[in-house]
Amino acid sequence: ERCPGLQSVMFFGGDRLTDAAVIALAERCPGLQAVNFHACEELTDAAVIGLVEGCRGLQSVDFGGCPELTDAAVLALAELRQELLSVALCYFPEDLMLDVAVTKLAKQCPMLQSVNFRACYDCLTDAAVIALAKGCPQLQSVLFGRCELTDAAVVALAEGCKRLRVVNLMYWTKLTDAAVIALAEQCPALQSVDLGRCIQLTD
Predict the structure, then answer these.
(1) What gap in Å lies between CA 47 and CA 56, rounded to an integer?
(2) Bridge partner list, 143
(3) Residues 144, 151: contact at Cβ < 8 Å?
């Protein structure tokens, strides 16, 4: 109540933080632009929805490592539309399927510059990443380490996102040389590429 001008907050690892606190924050600080609730394990979709409803100018959002979230949280974030520049939703529960929600995010948030879906394992398929590549040409940083994806996703990113600077594809066991060649040939701005444990790659 006493800090209505807040633009950025970080509650990394706030194990006891509840939805009610996040909703109250959103109601009292509508000017928030950047929020980090990484590893706030008690938070649910209600917190994300409340935040989106109260803070329409959000540009950067980190709800990675929040195991109670579902695809409803991603769908809510898509409503931020052109304001949203950065989203981190890593470590989603493995039994969720996020393709539909991420495809909507790609269609409605064309100004995205950074996405972090590390360790989403089977939650994402190539189709979701291809949608991001087609819908978000401004992407500069994409973190998809420990996602079970294939060359098709990387080729789409290389073709659709010429501004890529940071790419993390760690533990992509299906990744082949063709994907790396596509990045090298089509993304001249690349500064960092993590291909650790991509066991199919050769000289």
Answers:
(1) 14
(2) 116, 168
(3) no
